[in-house]
Amino acid sequence: MNSEKTIELLKQHNLLKIIDDELDIYLEVPHIAYIEVKTADSKAILFTNVVDKKNNKKFDEPVLMNVFCNAKAVELLIGDADKIAKEIEGLLKMKPPSGFMDKLSMFGQLFNLKSVFPKRTNSKGECQEVIKTGNQAKLSELPVLTTWEQDGGPFITMGQVYTTSLDGTMHNVGMYRLQVFDDQTLGMHWQIHKDSNHFFHEYKKAGKKMPVSIGIGGDPMYIWCGQAPLPIGVFELMLYGFVKKENAKLVKSITNDIYVPHDVDYVIEGFVDVDNLRIEGPFGDHTGYYTLEEDYPFMEVTAITHKKEPVFAATVVGKPPLEDKYMGYATERIFLPLLQTTAPDLIDYYMPENGVFHNLILGKIKTAYPGHAQQIMHAFWGVGQMSFVKHALFVSQDAPELHSDEVIPYILNRFDTENILITKGVVDALDHSSPKFAVGGKLGIDCTGDEIDSCEVDILDDIVLLEKMKNISNDIKDLKQYHKDTKSPIVVISVDKKRSQKELIDELKPLNKHIKILAIVDEKNNHLNNPYMLLWRVVNNIDSNRDIYIDGKTVAIDATNKNSYDNFQRRWPDDVTCTKSVLDDLKNRGILDIKDEFIEKWGLI
Ligand SMILES: Cc1cc2nc3c(=O)[nH]c(=O)nc-3n(C[C@H](O)[C@H](O)[C@H](O)COP(=O)(O)O)c2cc1C
């Protein structure tokens, strides 16, 4: 399915907005897409009149954003995730057939696998209708967006990065952001743990330039495959064939030997210099924080090819919820049977989007023995990209559905500080709170046991508890309690931070009989009435080795921004926010219609 068919399909299902107003690639287009995807019935957007105001340039091609705008769009473009998961489960559990019908069904399953392997063709692809090489290939001819004010420049945000191992036996497609430095130089943000980075080191060791081709557009399934966390050596386009029951068709790039899908809209070809790195970033990322400048490899562009009438695909990342919420749901479902091969007693799992995926996972298990939950936590922390998960919370088979609100009281009624496991390991390269890059605290909470006996907390009214706290320290500005009807109510306080919160937590100890779980956030940029964004903040901002304080049955969590008071040596990044003047201007021009409550709810500015 190419871009035209995708657009048609989205239109047919009333999932597409077309915006013909003139809009700038600098902030305007991405701000509109960012806001749209947070609305209740969000749609994909086709921007047909895109300009680069700074360089006084108008683009012929439209920009397509938010294709994975909601669950319906994902089902349309990828398929029924539960059904796909069942098929994978069927294959993984395949046993020798016992009867004739069994044999038939197994034959069917294996026959389907024929479509898994991508097919190479010798002819040119749709993506090569227009070919520009050498100095004719100019990245500035593409409508590459600058999403956020503090971004280091324009970034390609929906690039399918195709690479191969040095010996050519392994192929990979990864979705990584790509910073445009100039017409022929493109940053490759493959993080330290990712497959293309492993390939890069093979080329570097051999002293050879690394060929890379980047596809943009075509079947949205390609980009979904690019973000799928498959192990190294498994080409993600096999997932395309498995799901679509049709081989991905590939053509050779013009100036290197990398094969790319024939029907993408653009291909950027080139070679990565293995001897030099360049400062990449900052970039407002899907954690809702900026990732700060770091050294990354870059590609020297040798060709840009495209369809005669291409569509430029882009996405926007920032604070949740965004497209990755919907893409992530399909990934979560489809990977369940694969995870079960490592943890057979795992019934289900859920990575809430406001935990930005790697910051929080809920797991439901068939608990069979003491320490079972901890065993599975360790398994998770040792397997592929699951090892990035910072906080894991496990419940037993009798727990409510993990995506439901009912699971919260179930957890809080079983929460006991004795069942907290704190350890250390690999964390996502984007994690800003760990004291060191890519390694930090891991927190596991085992709530698989019985409900705790009684509520030992002497619960006070918010006003009374706040007053008592303020009598101890005037750093404390506000307080709100959540889930007071459970055995582990949560007290959230906001502070004007002037010192290490360890001191404050020690001072508050006399009030511990009124507190089971205490979470501390900064007064600035946090609203205590917004639990969705509070959870986002807390799991983002903590490193469990530094920020969890257990005192008997009470646990305090310091979720404030870290700085020299905490002996934090790295730079703490800013939150990702929209530019107010851009929002105001879009409102004045009648292109955007948002209320102040919406702005506050999603922490837009
Ligand atoms: C919107 C979006 C943007 C992403 N950007 C990056 C990125 O810039 N760098 C990166 O290493 N991973 C990024 N990822 C995650 C990777 O796509 C994901 O980890 C993928 O499985 C990597 O594939 P690989 O293991 O084949 O390298 C992004 C994911 C999404 C959904």
Low-confidence stretches: none
Ions and ligands: flavin mononucleotide
Number of strands: 33
End-to-end CA span: 38 Å
Helix content: 25-40%
Q: How would you classify the helix and strand content by structural class?
A: alpha+beta
Q: How many alpha or pi helices?
A: 17
Give the overall form.
globular
Alpha-carbon Rg, integer: 25 Å
Mean pLDDT level = 95
Q: Percent of residues in beta strands?
A: 15-25%
Biggest beta-sheet profile: 9 strands, antiparallel
Walk me through this protein's architecture.
The protein has 605 residues and is an alpha+beta fold. Helix content is 27%, strand content 25%. The protein is built from 17 helices and 33 strands. Strands 8, 9, 10, 11, 12, 13, 14, 17 and 22 form a nine-stranded antiparallel sheet that branches. The model has no long low-confidence stretch (mean pLDDT 95). Flavin mononucleotide binds at residues 172, 174-177, 189-191, 194-196, 226-229, 286, 315, 317, 324, 327, 385.
Lay out the secondary structure:
Blueprint: H1 3-12, E1 16-19, E2 23-24, H2 28-36, E3 44-47, E4 50-52, E5 57-58, E6 63-65, H3 71-77, H4 81-92, H5 100-112, E7 119-121, E8 130-133, E9 155-156, E10 159-164, E11 171-175, E12 178-182, E13 185-187, H6 195-206, E14 210-216, H7 220-227, H8 237-244, E15 249-252, E16 259-261, E17 266-272, E18 278-280, E19 283-284, E20 290-291, E21 294-296, E22 298-306, E23 312-314, H9 323-342, E24 346-350, E25 361-365, H10 372-380, E26 391-396, H11 407-412, E27 420-426, E28 439-447, H12 462-472, E29 476-482, E30 490-495, H13 501-507, E31 517-522, H14 531-541, H15 544-547, E32 548-551, E33 554-558, H16 580-588, H17 596-601
Parallel strand pairs: 1-3, 2-4, 6-23, 7-15, 25-26, 26-28, 30-31, 31-33
Antiparallel strand pairs: 3-6, 4-5, 8-22, 9-12, 10-11, 10-14, 12-13, 13-22, 14-17, 15-16, 17-22, 18-21, 19-20, 24-25, 27-28, 29-30, 32-33
Helix pairs in contact: 4-9
The structure holds flavin mononucleotide (FMN).
